Amino acid sequence: MKRIYFFLVILAGLVVLAIAAHWNWFLPAKKEVLTIGLGGPMSGTYKEIGLSMRRGVELAIKTINKSNLLKHYELKLAVVDDHSQTNTTVSAEKAARELVAIPNLTAVVGHYFSVPSADAGDVYRMHSIPFVTPSATLPSLTANNEWAFGIMPDDYYQATFLANYVIHGLERKKIAVIHSKDPYGNSLTDFFINELRVNELAPSVNVAIDPKDFDPALLKNWIDEFSNSDIVFLAMNYVHAAKVIQYLRKNGMNTDFIGSESLGGTHFIQEAGIYAEDVYAVTPYLPSLFGEESKHYQNDYIKEFQLEPDWVSTYSYEAVQLIAHAIGNVGRDTTKIRSFLRKMISPLEAMPSIAGDLYFNGSGSSRRSLAVGQVKQGRFGPARFQLTHVKYQELAKAKKEAESSEIFTMDGQYMKRATVVYTGIYVSEIKAFNPVEGSFTADFNLWFRWDPSKNSALDFEMTYGKVLTASILEKYFDKKTNNNFISYAVSARMNDEFPLQEYPFDVQVLKIRIKPKVKTNEDLILVTDIDDDSVLRKSLDFGPWKDSNHLQFTNNKEFLWSYRNPKYDRKLFMLDHSQYNYHVIMKRNSAAYVITFLPLMILVGTAYLIFTLDFDVFSSRYSIGVLSILSAMSYHNVNKLGVGYLVRGDLFFLASYVLFFYTILETSVSAYLKKIGHETIAYRLDIASMFFYPLVVWAALWALLK
Predict the structure, then answer these.
(1) Greater confidence, 683 or 181?
(2) What's the CA gap between 534 and 549, in Å, rounded?
C-alpha cells in the first residue's frame, strides 16, 4: 500500500514538473529591439497605397520575428503619415524627422512618390539611416543619395524596357505618348522617346497634361491621332491615367494603352473600372510568373489580411526582407548595412525574393527582371508575350548573326521575346503512391492556350516522370483571341524522393512537373492559367493519406544545350526551360497509427508496473521486462519501414528498448542489493525508478510529437 501511495504522489509531481519545465525551458532569450520605420501616405487621396505599404511591412516583420531569422534581434515597426501627393515635400520631410528621432531606428521603408522620397532622403542621409523605397523610380533619388535604395526599377530602365516591349514584344510601330508635366511623367517620357530613337522611331504624337489643373477633355483635339496610332504610352500616375483612359474610351477610341508600374496594380483597376480592360502595364507582382515562395507568400498574405497582395504591399514586404538580409549579414550598424546593400550590384550578389532575384545597379536602383501584365476580366495577368534576358551573351550574338533571329539588344544586353503558354491542370486521381520506392501515378486533364505566331505546335513531357497514356480531348484555333487551345487526358507515373524521417507524422508533397516538348522551348514561358483553382480542386484523399492543400506555380529548369559545338567555340551552355508545377500536399492520417502503436504503449505501461512489485517476486519482475523487450522487437520487425535510415517511429521503438532494458537492469540490481542486506537502498532505487521511468517516457513522447 505504501508503494502505491508513493507511486501516485510521484506521478502527480511529475505532471506538475513536466508542465513547469515545458514553459520555462522554451522562453525565448531576450533580444535587442530594432525599429524599422515606415513613411507613406496614410491619409488623403493615396491612403489606400499607404495601407498597402503598411500591410506588406507588418507581414514581413511578423514573418521575420517568427522565423528567428535574426537570432539576436527583434524588429519593431514605427509608422508615420507623410500626407504625400505626387509633388508634396514638406510633410515628407517632417515625417522623416519624426522617424529619425525614434531610438534604435535601423532603417526606413518609404516613401511612395519620388519627390517626397528625395526630400525625406536628405534627412535620412544626415542621420546615416538607410532607406528603401518600394515604389519611387526617379533615377536621381538613389544616384544622388548613397543611403537610398529602390526596389522598383527606375524610370530609365522601365521606359527603355517598355519601348522595346512595344516594338519587339507587341510589334507596334506607330506609338503615341501622353504624359504629365511633373518629374515622374517627364522622366519616363524622355527615356521612352530616347529608346524609340535608338530603334529609329519617333512618337506619332506627344501630348503633355498639367497634373495640377487636370482635365482630360483637353485631349479632345488629339483623339483622331491617338485612334490612328497602334498604341498609346501613358507616363503618369494611376489616378490621372484612369481618367485619361475613361475619357478616351467613352469617346470611341479603341487603341491599346500601355504604362509603367503606377498602372500595374489593383489601385489602377479600381480607379479605371471597366475601362481598365486590356490595358498593358509593367506589373511588378504577377504570382503566376513566380515560384513556390511567391505562392506561400500570397497564401500567408490572404490569411493575414483577407485580401490579395498587390505589388505595393509585395515590394514593401521585400524592402523589409532586404533590410533583414543585410542585418543578418553585417549586424545592426547602419553604415555597414548601407555598404552591404551598395555591393549587391550583380546577380551573383542578388537576394532571392518572391518577385525575382533582387540586386541593384551602381546607383542603388533595382535591376531585377520586369514583366508586363494585361487586364483581363478585372485583374492583371501575364501578357501573351514577355521580354527575357538571354542567358549567354556570346551565344545570343552568334545566333543573331547566323540565324537572323528575333534577339535584340536593350541597355547593352541581348533580349528576346518569349511566348506565354497559359497552362492548367485538373487532377482527378492519385494512385499507386509508394513513398518508399519514390513513385506515384496521377490521372489528370491538362490544357494549354498560347499565341501560335512563333510556335505553331506544342507538345509536353514530364520532368522526373513518364507519360503512360495521353489522348487529345480537344484542339482548335480561336480566331477571336488568336490563341491555339489543346487539352489532354493524361495518366503519368512520377518519380521523386519522399523524406520519411517524420513517419508516421509525415507530410508529403506529390509533385507533377511538366515542360514543353519543343525544339525552342527556351522561348516559351508556362504560366498558371487559373490563379486560384480551389473551385476546380477535387479532394484526393486515399488510404491513410488526407489531401491537405494544392499549389501551382512555374519556375525555370536548366538543361545542357550545346555539347562542345565548334560553332560556339566548343563551350557548354546550360539554358533554361520553363516548368509548370502542380503540388498535391498529402498529410498522413497519424490518428490511424494510434492503433498501430497501441500495443507498444501497453508494453511500456506494463513494464512500469515492475517497480510496484515486491522484490520477492524477482522472477515475475524479470520475466515482464524480458517479455516486453522481445515482444517490442518482434512488433517492430513487423512494422518496420523499408528505408535506410531511422524514422520517427523507429526512434519510439528504440526509446522503448532503453526503458525495457532499464527495467531488467534495475530488477537485477535491486535483487542483488536485497540479497546482500541493503533492502532500504533497493527500496529507494525502486522509488527513484518510479520517478525516472515516466520522466523518460514523457520526454521521449514530447521529442517525438513536437
Answers:
(1) 181
(2) 10
Instruction: Please provide the average confidence, as pLDDT, over all residues in the chain.
Output: 88
Q: Which of 33-47, 400-414, 523-537 has the lowest mean pLDDT?
A: 400-414
Give CA–CA dist 140/286, Å, rounded: 27
All domains of the chain in start order, with CATH: 33-152+291-359 (3.40.50.2300), 155-283 (3.40.50.2300), 419-588 (2.70.170.10), 591-705 (1.20.58.390)
- Are 151 and 311 in contact by the 8 Å Cβ rule? The answer is no
CB hemisphere CA count around 100 (13 angstroms): 19
What is the SS3 assignment for 524-564? Answer: EEEEECCCCCCCCCCCCCECCEEEEEEEEEEEEEEEEEECC
**Amino acid 5: pLDDT:** 46
Q: How many residues does the chain have?
A: 706
Burial class (CB in 10 A: 0-12, 13-18, 19+), 484: buried
Q: How far apart are CA 200 and CA 167, in angstroms?
A: 11
Radius of gyration of the chain (CA): 33
Confidence of residue 522 (pLDDT cuts 50, 70, 90): low
Spatial separation of the C-alpha atoms in residues 625 and 608, rounded to whole Å: 9
Which of the 8 DSSP states describes residue 358?
Answer: B
pLDDT at 6: 46
Spatial separation of the C-alpha atoms in residues 235 and 186, rounded to whole Å: 8
| Predicted structure pTM score | 0.84
Q: What angle do CA 343, 345, 346 make, to 5 degrees?
A: 130
From 83-97, 313-327, 409-423, the region with the lowest mean pLDDT = 83-97
**For residues 128 and 135, is the Cβ–Cβ distance under 8 A?**
no
DSSP letter assigned to residue 211:
S
Q: What is the pLDDT of residues 41-75, one digit of tens each?
A: 999 888 999 999 999 999 999 999 999 889 889 99
Check residue 99 and give its pLDDT.
Answer: 97
Q: Which three cell numbers stand for residue 182?
A: 511633373
Between 61-70, 165-174, 481-490, 657-666, the lowest mean confidence (pLDDT) is in: 657-666
Q: Is the pLDDT of residue 89 over 90?
A: no
Q: How far apart are the first and last CA of the chain?
A: 37
SS3 of 92-156: HHHHHHHHHCCCCEEEEEECCCHHHHHHHHHHHHHCCCCEEECCCCCHHHHHCCCCEEECCCCHH
Q: How far apart are CA 159 and CA 189, in angstroms?
A: 7
Helix (H, G, I), strand (E, B) or coil at 583: strand
Could you tell me the sign of the dihedral formed by the alpha carbons of 618, 622, 627, 628, in that order?
A: positive
Instruction: List helix spans (H) across 251-333.
Output: 266-272, 292-305, 311-330
Q: List the one residue out of 274, 277, 291, 237 whose CA is nearest residue 259.
A: 237
Q: What are the two backbone dihedrals, phi and then psi, of residue 248, each rounded to the nearest 5 degrees?
A: -70, -40
**What is the arithmetic mean of pLDDT over 500-528?**
87
What cell does 613 get?
512489485
**Residues in CB range of 533: below 8 A, 6 or more apart:** 424, 426, 550, 552
Residue 351: phi and psi, rounded to 5, are: -95, 120
CB 369 within 8 A of CB 356: yes
Contacts of 206 (CB under 8 A, 6+ apart): 176, 177, 178, 179, 189, 193
Other CB atoms within 10 A of residue 474 CB = 9
Nearest-angstrom CA–CA distance, 22 and 29: 15
pLDDT tens-digit map of 643-652: 888 888 888 8
CB 390 within 8 A of CB 501: no
C-alpha cell at 387: 521580354
Burial 533-545, CB ≥16 within 10 A → b, else e? beeeeeebeeeeb
